[in-house]
Amino acid sequence: MFRSRDKKTPEPFQDVSQGLKKLYRTKLFPLEDTYQFHDFHSPSLEDADFDNKPMVLLVGQYSTGKTTFIRHLMEQDFPGMRIGPEPTTDSFIAVMHGDQDGMIPGNALVVDPKKPFRKLNAFGNAFLNRFMCAQMPNPVLESISIIDTPGILSGEKQRISRGYDFAAVLEWFAERVDRIILLFDAHKLDISDEFSEVIRALKNHEDKMRVVLNKADQINTQQLMRVYGALMWSLGKIINTPEVVRVYIGSFWAQPLLIPDNRKLFEAEEQDLFQDIQGLPRNAAIRKLNDLIKRARLAKVHAYIIISLKKEMPSVFGKENKKKELIANLGETYLKIEREHQISPGDFPKLKKMQELLAGHDFSKFPTMKPKLLEAVEDMLANDIARLMTLVRQEEAAMPSQAVHGGAFEGAMSGPFGHGYGEGAGEGIDELEWVVARDKPSYDEIFYTLSPINGKVSGAAAKKEMVKSKLPNTVLGKIWKLADVDKDGYLDDEEFALANHLIRVKLEGHELPGKLPEHLVPPSKRHQEIDMGE
């Protein structure tokens, strides 16, 4: 797919993935490499990072149902799976598609160029011994990969060191995944110190975050309201943003509900979560583009910080003292860069973390200003990204049906157990009789008080009755279009009954159909070949 060239005659991109790789290698990586970005923030990206399927990262305290959630999605056990009330999953397990069941240990996984995990090598053997890939043939895994994580510890357990930086590993994954799902157990909402640290490590990725309140069928409605309120309060304190994180409530496993009072709520929430996950393949390209922009902005700010520190260093004497002074006053350097280059405060790395990292570096070896490198990244953000964005939209239009399929996603989609089947406008879908006929006698009484002429009431007469529902005119206008099946501008007794039925559907909180379903077409009109769309 070639694009027309602009003034600078940029080389056209064949596809989004190839374009992202090329931009990173030719424009962003040189800046990162020169100013030691990889030592401070994140390892360099590889081709596999741009080619891999969307990934979903599951995070939660032990026994919140992370592994069971994965099993529920796939409707199949995966190699290395362990489930129990204690901290059973003690490893990071990447559940990915493969032609046959198998396990790949961490040390072998980080040398595979086709997998996006090579840079995890930096976390050392203590982590790699606790990292593996479970491969299996499963339709869900054809579209997404899922990362299961060790249960986050609480109480005394969290004092035992894991031997590697758990929060840093999660932050590495957070930068590369498409969705982060935080799981909470409705029975234990206490957020441990380790969990708080983890959520803070994910701070820059709130757009990818979703929260699941699991095992909600084990408490009654009143308790659920209290638990939900407590969870939102706790999250508000840790995430510390005015926006509310999306929380899905339910029981995500294939067992009977213990307390079925909230069944409809759980079904609706599960449907919403499934739709969110199903949309990941379609949005994968835009997510990778978004992450590259985030990375480029951070790399640019990082370069300005290094340049500024280098400029302040003395050429011969007092280097160590000056270094300590610069680290202590790093906040002032941030403000100076912010003013000079009109950079948003949100683009800067965390001050405390940056101060800690700078302490281990020799400032005199930092490179000086290299305008061409910074200009290349500016050009990438100003021009190349816009071209890629157009290509993203073209690719999305060419593949509109990309969605996760198989496993639990199939059961929730169609048939009598699909969400909302037989409810609202779908009521009576598989009944032989016209569903509106049940209440037609009461609708007929109203109809005949409106003085019909030749068996029909005018729009003005019908309007007087319909506005009593207090629904807005935009909604009543849509109901009129659906009910006036023969499009003659009048309603007969069947059409009037249908209009009242649709009003009831809307008043009960259901959505109106875009087109009148076949089972709602009045019996006398079913033989007519009439377009019943809007």
Describe the structure in your own words:
The chain has 534 residues and is of the alpha/beta class. The protein has three domains: 16-44 and 286-398, Topoisomerase, domain 3, CATH 1.10.268; 55-279, 3-Layer(aba) Sandwich (Rossmann fold); 424-520, Recoverin, domain 1 (Orthogonal Bundle). Helix content is 45%, strand content 9%. The protein is built from 20 helices and ten strands. β7 (209-214), α9 and β8 (247-249) form a beta-alpha-beta unit. α1 (16-34) runs parallel beside α11 (280-312), α7 runs parallel beside α8 (193-201) and α19 (473-483) packs across α20. The radius of gyration is 29 Å and the shape is elongated. The two termini are 36 Å apart.
Overall morphology = elongated
| Strand residues, percent | 5-15%
Number of domains: 3
In which range does the helix fraction lie?
40-55%
The CATH class of the largest domain = Alpha Beta
Characterize the biggest β-sheet. Answer: 8 strands, mixed
CATH architecture of the largest domain: 3-Layer(aba) Sandwich
Evaluate the radius of gyration: 29 Å
Number of helical segments with 4 or more residues:
20
In CATH, what is the homologous superfamily of the largest domain?
Answer: P-loop containing nucleotide triphosphate hydrolases
What strand line-up does the widest sheet have? 3-4-2-5-1-6-7-8
Structural class assignment: alpha/beta
Total E-strand runs = 10
In N-to-C order, the SSE pattern is: HHHEHEEHHEEHEHEHEHHHHHHHHEHHEH
CATH topology of the largest domain: Rossmann fold
Mean pLDDT: 84
Distance between the termini: 36 Å
> Low-confidence parts, pLDDT < 50 over ≥5 residues?
1-7, 529-534
